[in-house]
Specification:
alpha+beta, Glutamine Phosphoribosylpyrophosphate, subunit 1, domain 1, six-stranded antiparallel sheet, four-stranded antiparallel sheet
Amino acid sequence: MARPIVSTYSIAACDLPAGQWGVAVESKFLAVGSVVPWAAPGVGAVATQAYANPSYGPMGLELLMEGLSAEEVVARLTGDDEGRETRQLGVVDGHGRAASFTGSECNGWAGGRTGPCYAAQGNILVSEETVAALAETFEATQQLPLAERLLACLEAAQAAGGDRRGQQAAAILVVEKDAGYGALSDTLVDLRVDDHARPVEELRRLYGLHQAIFGQTPRERWLPLEGELADEVDARLGSLGYGRLEDWAGVENLEERVDGDDAIDPVVLEHLRATSQ
């Protein structure tokens, strides 16, 4: 049986000041997020696709951890692989250096583009405009957090043509040291759309939910729980059968946004109002 091709466009990238590395990917390939994206904070990010060699992910991160540059990692991985001409690979290292590889037997349009802190690549694309959109969007969105930049890159690439076979799955992975759930994980964002008619749009929706639950509002923007607002919150909680904000927040998976009873995160307040009408 012929092995399926991970026909894909992806971007591996980093935000050095923020200490974040990540990969975003879209493909006409079921559950593409289970194959393509790999990243480790302070180490780098790897995207492996086309007739993908999944070992490129963990092996690439190991080589980066040993101090090899992105270019050296690509050379080492492909040099030891007899199937390299069917592979496609993007790597960004811990210093923001980038490299992309497209084997001569990858189905067209196939190619890549690199720049400071990113490697963009794709195969079986409508045209090279898809990869150009990845690169140009990343370069133009430096003001955004890395996850939002990567999502914007996917959206621009899809608008430019995307995978010429169509759409099916998308994923985003962003890592930062101790920035994940409860500060006990390095996984800041790890979202996957395995099978959907418009996977990039669905990934954007899931990211919105992720930010509502796990994002952070600066404490100075929280609202004092006093006077009329305190009365409103108590009344709304009571209408839902709760006596304490933290009890309701735990049920709604918003416990990470609750800290004491003297102030309330505006995101929590908005959700409380929406669920207690």
